[in-house]
What does this fold into?
Amino acid sequence: MTRYSAFRLLREGLRGHSGWGQAWRSPQPKPAYDAVIIGAGGHGLATAYYLAKNHGVTNVAVVEKGWLGGGNTGRNTTVIRSNYFYPESAALYDLSVRLYEKLSRELNYNIMFSQRGMIVTAHSEPEMEMAARQVNAMRLNGVDAEFLDRDQVRKMAPLLNFGPDMRYPIHGGVLQPRAGTGRHDAVAWGYARAADALGVDIIQNCEVLGLIVEAGRCVGVHTSQGDIRAGIVGAAVAGHSSVIAGMATRDLPITSYALQAFVSEPLKPVLDTVVLCPPFGTYISQSDKGGLVIGGGLDRIPSYGQRGNMPVQETVLAGLVEMMPALASVKLLRHWAGIVDVTPDSSPILGPSGLDGLYLNCGWGTGGFKAIPAGGYLFAHILATGQHHEISRPFDLARFETGHLIDEGAASGIAH
It folds into this structure.
């Protein structure tokens, strides 16, 4: 950093950033657009960006009932990975990792993607056999994977409990070296700025109240800022996907749950990878600011409430203390919940809704953040062409009628 730029940063801080322009506009909605995307979270913003960049569709509005990135994009644990079992899932999530790897340069915005790797531990001989199968499947699917024995896990994550009295002794695990974490706010802000620069209108505090349906086709949305007509409408609203589908008198195979996470006080570096211990239902990483980011399983009571639940907190944190006893006295700073949309096979839904003109990007469950680039890339392709990309085709809503499910419950149920 030059002396000039350092001085400018200090000056702008003292002046309340009065000399800096806005990163994106706050326009009034136009009466009509080529495409309207409901939801200004990561998936909605990424869809708008790729519509404009890859397909030349720039007359696009992204409407958001709250503030940009204020939903699940800002309420997750920022893990990015593609350690899935089935070829369809591996293709989808590894596309996302590859897009993340070049995203900072592409958007000219540092998303702080740190490829520190992720370990999923195994705690018995049968689990070690399944871990070996997962490594083989990942490699066959073109995803990086390493099979670790107990000593290799200890070397990478020495804070784990390797004592003889551990309830579930660690036998080894699976490592994906290219996995890691990113900065969730930066991902939303980077896509928002880039989409805005290409002409996309991002309209905040604009709640969708209903769909405009004419002759059996969705041709726009009723909003709190007036009616907006559109050639196509795409919904990327995570846990509220069933609400939007209900406006189209459609039922989705989705249940919305609260998913909690926690951040501790800042610590000196104690963990340089992401660790998931499935028997405890707990996983952990350390942020660049030093806080421990801790997550666990779903609160299995359907809810739209973005708040915590004491029994779930106790389960997650008890698991953490048994995983890493040295952290037992660490203080928590805060916790939160996001509303996740879970399908019966723990895989997303991409494609037509059943109402002509309305398309869905939903069902990501606990894995929405890591899929933002791929979700946006593929959804933009669908909206622009009216056809599936080869990677998105297996995730069409019709799979629940044909029975061609992609059951990734083991890979999606806890870590995200």
Notes: The chain is about 30% helix and 25% strand. The chain has two domains: 27-82+85-108+184-253+345-412, 118-177+256-342. The chain has a mean pLDDT of 93. The longest strand covers residues 292-302.
